[in-house]
């Protein structure tokens, strides 16, 4: 008799990965709520994305974790990973990419590139790298003070396509829309694009749920996952929240910190987050406790109800 092993049982692994550059705001709460509820009974991780050290604010990651705890989030006890402690892992990935010829050192300065008037502007608003340093091959001398760029292939290559579980089918032609991008800066800092991919692979993340401001980074990240022979996670990009002026909430636009004191204020913020995410929580739950609201959310959460748009409008006025 032949036994079939059947499909491997995969426990979903999701994550919330705030950068400790300021207190969590309503936009952060949306990403935390959506990623946590979508993972259901699977593993939900919290990762401290402090790879960009100059932007990291001392003590902020502890404050962010306290805020999450106050809102009743429960993350995996396997430990909170900090990108600032993971340079060795990123370096190993970089070396793997160097050996396969997929990256090259770039000594172009910002001002040199800014003066390249005939280069196109890419999805980030930055100029597409014109490829001055692309001739480098593994084994060639490595110049001092070089950044490392990932080769995205040619303008005639097929685009990277993926299905976003909220935003639908996406396609991005990296050479035309992004260009060869930096994965390690000349100052020795690894960039968000590499760190996030290496961490998601190392932590076995199967589903990425985050704000739609990162939709344009996804094709780059898929290219890196594939270059590292990893398994591409599923993606779901929730609409971002704006301030009344229509700007994305961030420290720069002075997003209000989430209220942490007073259960009623936290319940209200959580209730509004669920509502913004299309989940229609009953009004009565606004007057209950955090725990009751979480119980309702765990039962009723459906990603299908999240509005299929990149921006969901201004954030609601949360009573203090
Ligand atoms: N650290 C990023 C941020 O705070 C999120 C990265 C991600 O979810 O991929 O915007
Ligand atoms: Zn260069």
pLDDT averaged over residues: 92
Lateral arrangement of strands in the main beta sheet: 1-2-3
Q: At the first level of CATH, what is the class of the largest domain?
A: Alpha Beta
Strand tally, please? 12
CATH topology-level fold name of the largest domain: Rossmann fold
Q: So what's the overall shape? A: globular
Approximately how much beta-strand content do the residues carry? Answer: 15-25%
* H/E element sequence: EHEHEHEHEEEHEHEHEEHHE
Describe the structure.
By secondary structure, the chain is of the alpha/beta class. It folds into two domains: about 15-85 and about 200-220 and about 230-315, HUPs (Rossmann fold, 3-Layer(aba) Sandwich), CATH 3.40.50; about 90-190, HUPs (Rossmann fold, 3-Layer(aba) Sandwich). Helices cover about 30% and strands about 15% of the residues. It contains nine helices and twelve strands. It has a three-stranded parallel beta sheet. The chain has a three-stranded antiparallel beta sheet with strand order 4-5-8. Strand 6 (about 160-165) and strand 7 (about 170) form a beta hairpin. Helix 1 (about 25-40) crosses helix 8 (about 265-275) and helix 6 (about 190-200) crosses helix 7 (about 220-225). The longest helix has 14 residues, at about 25-40. The protein starts with 12 loop residues before the first strand and ends in a 6-residue tail after the last strand. The structure holds glutamic acid (GLU) and zinc ion. Glutamic acid (GLU) binds near residues 17, 18, 49, 210 and 214.
